[in-house]
Amino acid sequence: MTYQGHMLIEHGGSTPGFRTQIARLPFENLGVAVFSNDDIYGDQLMDIVKFGIIDKVLGLEKIDWNSLMKAAAVTNYEQVLSQIIPRPDNPKPPTSRWEGWYKNDAYGEILLCLVGLESSTLPECLQLTNEVYTTLPGVINPSIPSLVAKWNKVWSSHILLEHFDGDLYNASALDSIVTDDGFWVNREARDVLVTAEFVIEEDEIGFGLTGGIWGAGPGVDPPNGDTVRERAEVWFGKL
């Protein structure tokens, strides 16, 4: 890419709590490395610093990246808020408890355990239900039926499915981190709401995830179809 007429080659990377952006302008013999530990606005902060340094070192026209990034963040936040649908005052209950083992060939097996208004009765869920309010402090709303699974991936330790209406749940990826003051939870920040829809289809029980979870990127249309499985980005079948 080019920036104000100068070739710019860059690449970034991130993991919870650590973000990097390395930029090179090879024909100006200039390199800029920026780091941030902000998981929500870290990318914007790094761009503000990166472009500010480039503008100053090369004597380019100064662009107010701070104001531009703030305005973009406000616009994006308002857009996300406009897409949020409040949970109904009297939501329809789920047709099943939906707890148990599920499998996706790529993501593997997960054990969904019921927490909240009721707790799971499955013996294999006992440890999770006993520790969930300690390992995920302030996350579980006791008044809302929720399903939790240990995930143990690089960017998340748990998956939370919070009941919305009927067999539709809001899905979140959580990262439970041990600190000197107990556990702290990092919630994955997303621009699009991820949902999980459970269904019984022709002797098969499972749930489909939608909302950009598969990371297809811009320009790729989401799956569509008449069934939950056909329109799911990721499908977990019950074992």
Automatic annotation (TrEMBL):
Which taxonomic lineage does the organism of this UniProt entry have?
Eukaryota, Fungi, Dikarya, Basidiomycota, Agaricomycotina
Name the InterPro entries on file: Beta-lactam/transpept-like
The source organism is: Armillaria tabescens
Give the source's domain of life in one word: Eukaryota
What name goes with this protein? Answer: Beta-lactamase-related domain-containing protein
